[in-house]
Write a structure and sequence with these properties.
GO molecular function, one term: transmembrane transporter activity
Shape: globular
Organism: Penstemon smallii
Order of helices and strands: HHHHHHHHHHHHHHHHHHHH
Distance between the termini: 45 Å
Pfam families: Choline_transpo
Largest sheet: none
InterPro entries: Choline_transptr-like (IPR007603)
Radius of gyration: 24 Å
Number of strands: 0
Subcellular location: Cell membrane; Membrane
């Protein structure tokens, strides 16, 4: 990174230096300390903010219409006359299915709050448990789906169990380092009780929206359009719920990242140099000037990040099959290009500097590549481990709803269970995101100025520095091996 770029990006949030800049032992970038709480922030990605708000209004109206149409009486709003003739209409009421979604919401909220309560004492055990249990849970659900003659879902969950098992096997050697990073992130979050309160409030906000969402979803299930029509409508509503949940998770992400970054910069939350009400300032930026960037990034980051993990795991297990390796390498480089523009580390840059999403993502990735920290991030699986816990929580919530549905409405088990799983994943994800925010902030601070991590935890600093050195050596050796292999091939072809 150039010095000019460093000074320009720091001016919005860190505009005054306190003492001489400290040298970055990883790269050549210097980092200035100090904070300005009065620096003006500009609204970013306003177009996506408006799109998200319009989407909420439209989806909220649709949910209300579908929920009310079958609430206490059939076809209250006379919707059936528009669908009669090409869709199947049967008897069914919203209140028949709404309590089933309430079970999923209650289970998801319970799991999320349990995670927050056990964050300080049992977090590492819970993360290890979720990694090893998820494969078994997927396999068991697959067997149950075959038992109730849901062959499509049985095959889908069986494939999911197989992929999960292969992924865990491919990264089993990385898990000790991943657990180390997660433990330090949990320690950081546990020492900031206001962070967990933000997560709890966000879960309450999400529950309010889920009350409306489940009301409309129950109305759609009650409409009985026929399998094609119902699944299509529920699919659209689920995509909307994913986006809404991702936006709320990333609001927490930006808020917590800003707080953690300040704690690391100032050497502790009780430092005299800490600004007044840092968490409230970070939250205010998240829901105002930076909200458009959050809405924009929430559309793409989760999908691209998951795809990147799967391709990395597949790439590491490919042998000498040149054709398959070529195809996977093409996908790998394509995803790497997308990661440059859509990555979770952008949210830390948004929290700190108030930049647009693409600008933040690009700067964060260039920072990691220029300092070599990208090799450490590629080795770390903390995001995947947290995602496994989120998926497991969603599966448990979906199973609770599916079991009750099986008792009362056996023909709606998979429909209610799959959509209830989405609700559970979002609620558990809101609890998990506080740890992920701490992890991303730690890596950003380490790339910006490693002395910040050294001051916070010298033992942890030595461990990640040693691991970074090992990964850079590994990459250099692998690059030399690839070059030598290509030279040998060219020599053989010439001969």
């Amino acid at each position: 990174m150039s010095d000019s770029r460093s000074s320009s990006t720091s001016s919005s949030y860190y505009d005054s230096a306190v003492g001489p800049p400290q040298s970055n032992v990883v790269g050549s970038r210097s980092f200035t300390q100090g904070i300005s709480t009065t620096a003006p922030r500009h609204w970013r990605d306003v177009f996506w903010l408006l799109i998200f708000i319009a989407h909420l209004i439209v989806i909220g109206f649709v949910l209300g219409v579908f929920g009310l149409n079958r609430f206490q009486q059939k076809d209250r709003l006379n919707i059936d006359k528009y669908t009669m003739g090409y869709l199947e209409n049967k008897d069914g009421l919203t209140e028949d299915y709404w309590p089933l979604y309430a079970v999923a919401g209650g289970a998801g909220a319970f799991l999320g709050w349990t995670w927050l309560l056990l964050l300080g004492s049992r977090a590492s055990q819970m993360m290890k448990f979720s990694v090893h249990l998820l494969t078994t849970y997927l396999a068991v659900i697959s067997v149950l789906c075959f038992w109730v003659e849901q062959f499509f879902w049985g095959v889908a969950f069986a494939i999911g169990a197989a992929l999960q098992f292969l992924y865990v096997i491919s990264v089993i050697d990385r898990l000790p380092f991943t657990v180390l990073v997660l433990q330090r992130a949990v320690t950081m979050v546990w020492n900031l009780p206001e962070v967990t309160r933000v997560a709890s409030i966000s879960m309450l906000v999400m529950l309010i929206w889920l009350a409306l969402w489940s009301f409309g979803a129950a109305g759609v299930v009650a409409l009985s359009f026929g399998d094609g029509g119902r699944w299509w409508l529920l699919g659209v509503l689920s995509v909307s719920l994913f986006w809404t949940g991702a936006v709320l998770c990333n609001v927490v992400h930006v808020t917590v990242s800003g707080m953690v970054f300040l704690v690391l910069i100032h050497g502790g939350r009780d430092a005299t140099s800490m600004p007044v009400k840092p968490l409230m300032n970070s939250l205010r930026y998240s829901v105002t000037t930076s909200f458009g960037s959050i809405c924009y990034g929430s559309l793409f980051t989760a999908a691209i990040r998951t795809l990147r993990w799967k391709i990395r795991g597949l790439r590491s297990k490919i042998g000498s099959n040149e054709c398959l390796l070529c195809c996977v390498d093409f996908l790998f480089h394509l995803v790497e290009f997308l990661v440059r523009w859509f990555n979770k580390y952008a949210y830390v840059q948004i929290a700190v500097y108030g930049k647009s999403f693409n600008h933040s993502a690009k700067d964060a990735w260039e920072l990691f590549q220029s300092t070599g920290v990208e090799a450490l991030i590629a080795y770390d699986c903390s995001g995947a481990v947290l995602l496994m816990g989120t998926i497991l929580g969603g599966l448990i919530a979906g199973t609770c709803a599916a079991v009750w549905t099986r008792i009362n409405h056996p023909d709606r088990v998979m429909m209610v269970g799959s959509t209830a799983m989405v609700m559970g994943m979002i609620l558990v994800g809101l609890a998990m995101v506080v740890v992920e925010s701490a992890v991303t902030s730690i890596y950003i601070c380490y790339a910006e100025d490693p002395s910040l991590i050294n001051r916070w935890d010298p033992a942890f600093f030595n461990q990640i520095s040693e691991k970074l050195h090992q990964r850079l050596q590994h990459r250099s050796a692998r690059a030399r091996e690839v070059i030598n292999h290509r030279i040998d091939n060219q020599v053989q072809e010439a001969v």
